[in-house]
Amino acid sequence: MHNISLAELANKIGATVAGNDEHIVSRVSSFAKSSKDAVIFVVDEKYLKQLDVVDFGAVILKPEHAEGFEGTALVMSNPYLGFALATQLLDTTPAPAKDIAPTAVIDKTAKLGSGVVVGANAVIESGVEIGANTEIGAGCFIGKNTKIGENGRIWANVSIYHEVVIGHSCCIQSGTVIGADGFGYANEKGRWVKIPQLGTVLIGDRVEIGANTCIDRGALDDTLIADGVIIDNLCQIAHNCEIGENTAIAGAATFAGSLKIGKNCMVGGASVLNGHMEICDNVHITGMSMVIRPIDKPGVYSSGIPLQPNKEWRKTAARTLNIDSMHKRIKELEKQLASKAKD
């Protein structure tokens, strides 16, 4: 458990203290489980009234919400950012590994920087280079000639194939597979002929990848994940995709091959994006969208049918199946009306 004074915490997260800056806290908490050793935060004004009945060490508030507040507050313009930074400082998550486990299999040609730790039964093949202070969890596989930067955290049972390049300060959650073959086949009279995938995967700095996500290697050129990208659990990134800086991808999203998506985009969960097309910068695609055409203008895009009671949905579905015939009837009625107007 970490213990920190509010004065020190405020200095590290860019806040100012209103109240007792010597008070010691050790965790960040929800309202429901708060206590005197905890920091909570409020972004929405509607929660301010609840502060009167909640026990806490300090609350992170916007300046306008701190006016007249009699308790101890950490005041800053973006309390949610303060919450994120405080959580990092008070994080008690254990490291994926400690030291180099005796059961780890590390090829003699692999180069491990200072402070690298490797968990039990991990395998690191020939030609691998791992930067300083990177943590490799138990059961991981790091393929030949792969390069991983400094200060990375790779959790248990991650598989990274050969010649993949991963930048600095990346976090990869358990079960993820990086650099497996893309889905490339030719068809000869009904028989599928495999196309070896000769590219690799290049991942930038500060990239975070959720559990059980798959990022395929390129067919000829490489699959590219730029700096600052965050990818949730259970996502599929197919071969030769390119994802721009600081783009966020929520769980179970599927990207088909050779999709190029720009910077600062957001893709909602369970969305499916067609391949061989481009999505421009600053696009927000809401959850469960099906994207089959390029997007060349920033903005928010959605598709799909929202949830309805089953009886209403059945009617909607039936009407949807009749859209083509309804369209033809409307066009015919428009022609008849236009003809009568001329008369």
UniProtKB/TrEMBL annotation:
Pathway: Bacterial outer membrane biogenesis; LPS lipid A biosynthesis. GO terms for biological process: lipid A biosynthetic process. It catalyses: a UDP-3-O-[(3R)-3-hydroxyacyl]-alpha-D-glucosamine + a (3R)-hydroxyacyl-[ACP] = a UDP-2-N,3-O-bis[(3R)-3-hydroxyacyl]-alpha-D-glucosamine + holo-[ACP] + H(+). The keyword Lipid biosynthesis applies. It comes from the Bacteria. Its EC number is 2.3.1.191. One of its GO terms (molecular function) is UDP-3-O-[(3R)-3-hydroxyacyl]-glucosamine N-acyltransferase activity. Homotrimer. Catalyzes the N-acylation of UDP-3-O-acylglucosamine using 3-hydroxyacyl-ACP as the acyl donor. Is involved in the biosynthesis of lipid A, a phosphorylated glycolipid that anchors the lipopolysaccharide to the outer membrane of the cell. Belongs to the transferase hexapeptide repeat family. LpxD subfamily. HAMAP family: LpxD. This is UDP-3-O-acylglucosamine N-acyltransferase. The gene is lpxD.
